[in-house]
């Protein structure tokens, strides 16, 4: 008899087709993998299941009507949502800044004076001045105007230039020179007639005075209260080669704070309200202490509140169940730092601000899976059964990995959630389903690198990066230097690129290779690593990880080029054998549940005689 | 920033009939990047001049401007020189960007003139900017 096991996942539908004769082990003939249609566990899955079965049957060389039984998993539909709440924001009071890293600022040193248009320098009658040079003024003209003013006794102490002309102007001034910050795009936003400071550090160095609050206080003669208000400006300029700070009349920019919002976790043991400003650790501690989670609500008006409402609405629409009957079954939080625009900045300055990312999971009952089985039976004209839990089937499938034995734990990292299950030597199975998966990793990578495009976030998670050193050399992220026989495209020169099957693709914003690698690996540790640990602690005898023996990583994420290594490193100290599954010794971490569904049927058929 | 014959520098080989404005703008681009430049006047087509200049340059980066106004930039790091930019009758702004890119090739910074050339291509400007592009696949 031909049996098909079908595992409908959040992203993919996997099928295994086998010949099963009672009393003998199943003989697997073919497998398939297709995208899941609709939300997992809903009637919208039918076209995807049909396609997967057709592909597997074709590969097995049999027609669909020869399938005697289709076994599908009993997984309840799960919708996971992610959201981010910024906790801090830099708003400049009493100052405006232009801090950036133009590749070629002119001159060196620190200059303090009153901002004055370059063609009005001779009108200045008030001590030292800072020349402001719009791009409409050619560099030769700007240099001549500054030189003339200096010759006539005007103390020109620095310049702020819109075009990329800093070196050209400095070279034509000669003498001691003045610090010149160039490529200040929003030069029209520089307030004229205000006290300002310009600092350019020597090559290879960073500004020393303008990034120091007390340096600013010294320059501008500030009292303690004003120094405190200017501190964010100093912080935003740290690590830059050149910078400008312009003092504004008090009250020009008013500091304000973002309400961080709060969430309320309702559990079997307690109800806890957590202010998100306390960070992810506080959220997860509350989650742990309340026991089984009954629901979570977010403060209305905050992004957390909006996320919880959206997740429930999405699942309500997919299943037909009223949103009021749906509850959040798990919650996961992670800290991150996000580059945020500085309010009051003049050159798109950003600072690293604190934020919390949240993942929530909503689960319904099993009824929809039964309805799906009935619908499939009508469409396929083949008997369809809901058989066994996903955890049970997943473990049986994972046990086909060579070198494994019971007791065994399986961790399946999905896009929205993480499944884990453990089978003891007596074949008793316990399982846990946690919020947080690949989507949250994407969110963290994108937010921390300042990349909004979702396909870019996914690519950055999946691929290594490299730096194109010149037209013939690529430095990979592990330090390996690769020489090419043909010159690389000139547009890749000096760029950080994604190393993918599609070729080398320049990454938006050209972030340093080290930064991309650090963010990517850290995001995987923060989500997959943390979730694996909390799931395995839940399943381990006495919550002690040392009592676990074999841990197998299954699912699409286990194919990630670095994730199995990261997880294995994390648990190495506990003496656990951790690795990616190799289902049936040939499929890698894929098809564990589909294979397990067939094995489960065969086992039950044998037991029932 | 002109240099003696044996000092590290980008070399620009310019045809005697090359537009003086193009040469000056290219030199300004190099100067802004603080990379020395040496100019040699010689007959030839821009691409040939650029490739020869790259082979002669101690920094491995050369440029050529011919009497028809074509501008080329070449790199010679391993074996034969490689033309990385070749465009027709660039205006002063593009010549300045090309000079800046020649400096960027030396300093190993991302290039800027390519985007401007590509925009010229899309606009269908006379002669058309031509970019040297090659399909390259990763592993």
Describe, in plain words, how this protein is organized in 3D:
The complex is a heterodimer of chains A (609) and B (139). Chain A contains 14 helices and 28 strands. With 609 residues, chain A is α+β, with helices and mostly antiparallel strands. In chain A, strand 2 and strand 3 form a beta hairpin. Helix content of chain B is 37%, strand content 21%. The longest helix of chain B has 16 residues. The chains are: A alpha+beta (609), B alpha/beta (139). At the A-B interface, helix 3 and strand 25 of A face helix 1, strand 5 and helix 3 of B.
Largest sheet of chain B: 6 strands, mixed
Structural class of chain B: alpha/beta
The portion of residues forming beta strands of chain B comes to 15-25%
Give the end-to-end Cα distance of chain A, rounded to a whole number of Å. Answer: 15 Å
- Main interface pair? A-B, 34 and 30 residues
Unreliable residue runs of chain B: 119-139
What is the CA-atom radius of gyration of chain B, in angstroms?
A: 14 Å
Tally the helices of chain A.
14
Find the structural class of chain A using helix and strand composition. alpha+beta
Overall average residue pLDDT of chain B: 81
Global mean pLDDT of chain A: 87
Identify the strand order in the major beta sheet of chain B. 2-1-3-4-5-6
Most strands sheet of chain A: 7 strands, mixed
Strand order of the largest sheet of chain A: 6-12-11-7-8-9-10
Report helical residue fraction of chain A. 25-40%
Overall strand count of chain A: 28
Using the alpha-carbon principal axes, give the shape of chain A.
elongated
What share of residues are in beta strands of chain A?
Answer: 25-35%
């Amino acid at each position: 008899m031909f049996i098909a096991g079908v595992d409908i996942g959040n992203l993919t539908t996997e099928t295994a087709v086998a010949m099963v004769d009672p009393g003998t082990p199943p003989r697997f003939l073919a497998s398939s993998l297709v995208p899941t249609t609709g939300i997992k566990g809903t009637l919208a899955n039918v076209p995807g299941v049909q396609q997967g079965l057709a592909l597997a049957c074709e590969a097995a060389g049999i027609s669909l009507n020869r399938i005697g039984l289709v076994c599908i998993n009993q997984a309840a539909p799960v919708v996971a949502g992610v959201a981010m709440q910024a906790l801090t924001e830099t708003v400049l009071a009493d100052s405006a800044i232009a801090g950036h890293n133009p590749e070629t600022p002119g001159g060196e040193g620190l200059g303090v004076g009153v901002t004055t248009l370059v063609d009005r320098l001779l009108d200045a009658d008030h001590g030292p001045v800072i020349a402001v040079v719009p791009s409409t003024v050619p560099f030769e003209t700007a240099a001549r105007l500054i030189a003339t003013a200096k010759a006539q006794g005007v103390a020109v102490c620095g310049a702020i230039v819109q075009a990329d002309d800093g070196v050209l102007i400095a070279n034509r001034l000669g003498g001691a020179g003045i610090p010149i910050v160039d490529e200040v795009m929003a030069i029209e936003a520089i307030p004229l007639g205000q006290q300002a400071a310009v600092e350019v550090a020597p090559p290879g160095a960073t500004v020393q005075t303008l990034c120091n609050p007390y340096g600013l206080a010294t320059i501008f003669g500030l009292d303690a209260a004003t120094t405190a208000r200017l501190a964010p400006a100093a912080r935003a300029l740290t690590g830059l080669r050149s910078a400008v700070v312009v003092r504004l009349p008090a009250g020009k920019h008013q500091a304000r704070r973002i309400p961080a919002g709060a969430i309320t976790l309702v559990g079997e043991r307690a109800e806890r309200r957590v202010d998100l400003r306390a960070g992810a650790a506080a959220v997860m501690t509350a989650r742990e202490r309340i026991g089984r989670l009954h629901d979570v609500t977010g403060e209305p008006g905050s992004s957390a509140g909006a996320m919880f409402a959206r997740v429930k609405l999405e699942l309500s629409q997919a299943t037909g169940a009223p949103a009021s009957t749906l509850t959040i079954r798990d919650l996961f939080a992670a800290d991150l730092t996000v580059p945020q625009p500085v309010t009051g900045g003049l050159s798109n300055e950003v600072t690293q601000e604190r934020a919390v990312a949240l993942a929530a999971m909503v689960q319904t009952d099993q009824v929809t899976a039964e309805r799906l089985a009935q619908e499939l039976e009508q469409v396929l004209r083949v008997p369809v059964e809901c058989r066994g839990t996903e955890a049970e089937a997943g473990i049986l499938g994972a046990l086909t990995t060579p070198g494994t034995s019971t007791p065994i734990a399986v961790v399946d990292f999905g896009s929205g959630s993480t499944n884990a299950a453990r089978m003891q030597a007596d074949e008793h199975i316990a399982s846990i389903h946690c919020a947080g998966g690949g989507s949250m990793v994407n969110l963290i990578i994108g937010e921390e690198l300042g990349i909004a495009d979702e396909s870019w976030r996914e690519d950055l998670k999946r691929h290594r990066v490299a730096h194109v050193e010149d037209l013939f050399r690529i430095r990979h992220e592990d330090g390996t230097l690769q020489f090419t026989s043909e010159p690389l495209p000139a547009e890749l020169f000096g760029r950080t690129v994604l190393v993918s099957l599609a070729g080398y693709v320049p990454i938006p914003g050209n972030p340093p290779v080290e930064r991309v690698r650090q963010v990517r690996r850290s995001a995987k540790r923060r989500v997959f690593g943390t979730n694996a640990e909390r799931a395995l602690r839940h399943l381990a005898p006495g919550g002690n990880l040392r009592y676990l023996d074999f841990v197998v990583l299954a699912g699409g994420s286990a194919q990630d080029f670095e994730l199995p290594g990261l997880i294995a490193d994390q648990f190495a100290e506990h003496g656990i054998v951790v690795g990616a599954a190799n289902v049936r010794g040939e499929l890698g971490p894929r098809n564990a549940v589909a294979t397990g569904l067939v094995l489960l049927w065969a086992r039950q058929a044998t037991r029932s005689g | 920033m002109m240099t003696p014959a044996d000092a590290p520098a980008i070399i620009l080989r310019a045809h005697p009939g090359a537009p003086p404005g193009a040469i000056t703008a290219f030199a300004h681009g190099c100067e802004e990047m603080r990379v020395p430049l040496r100019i040699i006047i010689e007959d030839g087509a821009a691409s040939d001049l650029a490739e020869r200049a790259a082979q002669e340059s101690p920094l491995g980066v050369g440029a050529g401007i011919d009497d028809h106004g074509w501008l080329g930039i070449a790199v010679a790091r391993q074996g034969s020189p490689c033309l990385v930019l070749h465009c027709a009758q660039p205006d002063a702004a593009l010549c300045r960007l090309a000079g800046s890119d020649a400096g960027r090739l030396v300093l190993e910074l991302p290039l800027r003139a390519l985007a401007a050339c590509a925009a010229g291509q899309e606009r269908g400007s006379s002669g058309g900017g031509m970019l040297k592009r090659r399909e390259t696949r990763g592993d």
